[in-house]
TrEMBL record:
The lineage of its organism: Bacteria, Pseudomonadati, Bacteroidota, Cytophagia, Cytophagales. Residues 269-313 form the Trigger factor C-terminal domain. InterPro entries: Trig_fac, Trigger_fac_C, Trigger_fac_C_sf, Trigger_fac_ribosome-bd_bac, Trigger_fac_ribosome-bd_sf, Trigger_fact/SurA_dom_sf. Belongs to the FKBP-type PPIase family. Tig subfamily. This is Trigger factor. Keywords: Chaperone, Isomerase, Rotamase. The keyword Isomerase applies.
Length: 440
């Protein structure tokens, strides 16, 4: 066997593998013997099928299978031993000569290879982090949302401001028609048209004017995407089906128990403290997520690396056959390049700091997510074994894909934690309202 790598430029190479008969013959013979033991052919007892007959009937498919196995093993070994930094994996050369599987004894296989250079991380760049300052308006909004969320829903005969009105929305001069729910709190102009209405009433209004030319509000009301509603204009009619009103819940022990568990909070003062802590915790998580995005974007935008663009496009097309077209790859190529750069940066940090994720860490993280899903602070002793088995089954699903996803997420968290230590994070105080406008 002979494997050679010929670098054609800084990011591309040709890999050639030459196999002689001695490289694969014994493996083919062994596989023929295995087939002979298992084959069921009329006229022969099980396990007594002559090897010659098996070779005659299945020889070519066995040969192809074993040569492919040899190629995969030897190419992987060559890449590992020579520390070749690849983009993806080698792809068969489209100009590969035809193979005569019936007569050839020596085979030559050619592959295109994309090479990734070593990179230097631009850790001298600073990134912005945020400390969110809660104001009374944010707290008041949180209280109102909780009161509505846990309040009692009624269906009054006539609507008032703040109600939700269900019905059919229809474009007067157009094809759009859909069942929808209009929150009157989103109405900017013509609120009076939506108050005092009853079941069966028809309201006519200018859609865009009514919702303040806000595409997000229009998308919510129509169920269409923001891009689609950007072109939606004109008069609409809304036929009222039902009115829903939420009577705000009282700040009492019943509400405290629903939110935090029985008797965990017993006074309004403790309730206010708990709500503030919860909101601060949520904002801190979102601020940390935004810092992570800033770190990734800063490094990706400033890392100096040359990408084998044409090979990358072909690799994306081959590995996503039937899922992506050449046109889609071209259209989104900048995003794919950014994802590739981040992968290179991540791998560099993992290598430099020898970062690892243990099986115990994967299991613990999975168990924590399960507890959060079931709103449990900890696993009761009698359920520990069952929960562990459930977590194990979840991680094994989809051929272990869930395990890989959890592992990669934990590894990314360790990479970002290390980058926060090495980069300069400039902390900026910001109001909750400004943070929401920036982050969401």
């Amino acid at each position: 066997m002979n494997i050679t790598l010929n670098q054609t430029d800084s990011t591309n190479a040709q890999l050639k593998v030459v196999l002689e008969e001695s490289d694969y013959a014994s493996k083919v013979d062994q596989q023929v013997k295995e087939y002979s033991k298992k084959a069921q052919i009329k006229g022969f007892r099980p396990g007594k099928v002559p090897a010659g007959l098996v070779k005659k009937m299945y020889g070519k498919s066995i040969l192809v299978e074993q040569i492919n196995k040899v190629l995969q093993e030897e190419i992987s070994k060559y890449i590992r031993e020579n520390d070749v930094k690849l983009l993806g994996e080698p792809l068969p050369d489209p100009n590969q000569s035809d193979i005569d599987w019936d007569n050839q004894k020596e085979f030559e296989f050619n592959y295109q290879v994309g090479l990734l250079p070593e990179i230097n991380l631009p850790l001298d760049k600073s990134v912005e982090g945020y400390t969110v300052e809660l104001d009374q308006t944010t707290m008041d909004e949180a209280y109102e949302n909780l009161k509505r969320q846990f309040g009692k829903t009624t269906n009054p005969e006539a609507s008032e401001a703040g109600d939700f009105i269900a019905g059919e929305l229809k474009q007067v001069e157009g094809d759009f028609v859909s069942k929808t729910l209009i929150p009157t709190t989103r109405i900017v102009d013509g609120q009076d048209k939506f108050t005092g209405v009853k079941e069966g009433d028809v309201i006519r209004f200018d859609l865009r004017k009514t919702f303040g030319d806000d595409n997000a509000a229009l998308a919510h009301v129509t169920g269409l995407s923001k891009d689609v509603v950007a072109d939606l204009n004109g008069e609409f009619e809304f036929t009222v089906d039902k009115i829903s009103r939420t009577e705000a819940a009282e700040l009492n022990q019943e509400l405290f128990d629903k939110l935090f568990g029985k008797d965990e909070v017993t006074t309004e003062e403790d309730f206010n403290t708990k709500i503030r802590e919860t909101i601060e915790e949520n904002y801190n998580k979102e601020a940390d997520n935004l810092l992570n995005r800033n770190i990734i974007d800063t490094l990706v935008d400033n890392v100096d690396v040359e990408i084998p663009a044409e090979f990358f496009k072909r690799w994306l097309l081959v590995t996503n056959e039937g899922k992506l077209t050449s046109e889609q790859i071209d259209e989104n190529f900048d995003r794919y390049v950014k994802e590739l750069k981040w992968s290179m940066i991540k791998n560099k940090v993992v290598e430099q700091h020898d970062l690892k994720v243990s099986n115990d860490e994967v299991m613990e993280a999975t168990m924590d997510k399960m507890l959060a899903q079931f709103n449990m602070p900890e696993v009761p002793e009698e359920l520990k074994e069952s929960m562990k088995n459930y977590a194990q089954q979840h991680l094994q699903q989809d051929n272990g894909r869930n395990y890989i996803n959890e592992y990669e997420q934990l590894l990314t968290e360790k990479v970002l934690a290390k980058l926060k230590e090495e980069m300069t994070v400039v902390d900026k105080k910001i109001t909750a309202e400004d943070f929401r406008n920036m982050a969401f």
